[in-house]
Amino acid sequence: MIGLLGTAVNTATVILGATLGLLMKKGIPERISDTIFKGLALVTIFIGISGSLVGENTLLAVIVMVLGALIGELANLDKHIDSLGKRLENKFDKSNDKSTFAQGFTSSCLLFCVGAMTIVGCLQAGLKGDNTVLFTKSTMDFVSSFIFASTMGAGVLFSAGFVLVYQGLLTLLAGVLSPVLTTAVINEMSCVGYIIIIGLGLNMLGVTKLKIMNFVPAIFLPILFCPLYDWLVSVLPFLG
Questions:
Q1: Which domain covers residue 92, as residue numbers?
Q2: First and final CA of the chain: distance in angstroms?
Q3: How far is 120 from 201, CA to CA, in rounded Å?
Q4: In this predicted structure, what is the pLDDT of residue 144?
Q5: What pLDDT score does 233 carry?
Q6: How far apart are CA 119 and CA 53, in angstroms?
Q7: Domains of the chain: total
Q8: Exposed (0-12), middle (13-18) or buried (19+): which is 76, by Cβ within 10 Å?
Q9: 199 with 111: CB under 8 angstroms?
Q10: Which of 60, 134, 188, 238 would give a disulfide with 121, using CB separation of 3.0 to 4.6 Å?
Q11: pLDDT for residue 239 is more than 70
Q12: pLDDT per residue as tens digits for the range 133-148
């Protein structure tokens, strides 16, 4: 399965980076760790703002974000992911300070999985067997997982499982979705993913307490709504 090689490598780099980060964590004073964490939050917001500019249709982004949030709230995705993080925390984290385990798990799952490189990389791997983008992403995720684990703990390590399942499924589904994955659709999916990353950064700073995972369904709605919007524009030109 050549198409899944990129996902396997990406998963391995997250595990390696997080493991090294955990080894470093014990030697970092809490004051410095807090400052580093806030710096990561600022960089996360920057990444989100920069990536969201690939979107070409603000109205469409508004529509899919609203509907995606509705779906996420009805399914209560954020609660389920948080509960998974806490179950892992209770089972595997025997330290006295468990305050950042679930946060590290959820934040890492989002950061590693909702950006444009994940979407484009999985599609290229699934459709063409080209893992170049995922290999590049693996290098970036190695660094991110190292820094995240050194500040947020073991939850980051367990996000590797989420990366494996999420990217693996997206890669396998690429062939089925290929007829509808136009450049416009991919751009809008990426835009929404990066908007969600902005929210993640704001949560990390403590500015907001958004249920970020509840917005994730919005990433996939452009697959349905881009063709529908194009049809509406052809019928009602003023929408364009």
A1: 2-239
A2: 42
A3: 22
A4: 87
A5: 65
A6: 16
A7: 1
A8: middle
A9: no
A10: 134
A11: no
A12: 899 899 989 988 998 8
